[in-house]
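Hey, resending since the last one bounced:
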Amino acid sequence: MAQISLWLRGRDLTAITVTPQSVDSSGNLSAGSTSSLYGHVNITDFRSDPAKENISPVTSPFANMMVVEENCTIEIEEILNMNSVNILAAMASSGDYFFVALTRGQQSYGFYSSRGAYSEGVNSKGKNVCRMVFEQIDIGAPNPTYG
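The structure tokens again:
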């Protein structure tokens, strides 16, 4: 029987939500209203950029780069819409902490984050987009989670 490769395509992003988080005086996060970006997303970009340190004895002439911290970000690019609220624009001014969840193909990600850079622009031709970066925070448990 013939078989083809089922590569992940953009339309295989089946769910993407962003939920603002409020923080109480003890540092506990609680969820606000979830917004779905499904059908609005141009690009999602997940990056893992671990911090490393050279840990080697003074007698060794070779570097021994060890991962000492994990650092992840998710950048989401939303296509701007002139007839409705642009979700990332609203999120950028609504708070500092968020939970991002996305499902692509058979894999799901959950990510507690702080608000990173936000940008948007208007072009004379083509689509117009805004971008928001969500940066990893330490919640005392594995973050992000994969399923």
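The chain has one domain: 13-139.

Sorry for the duplicate.
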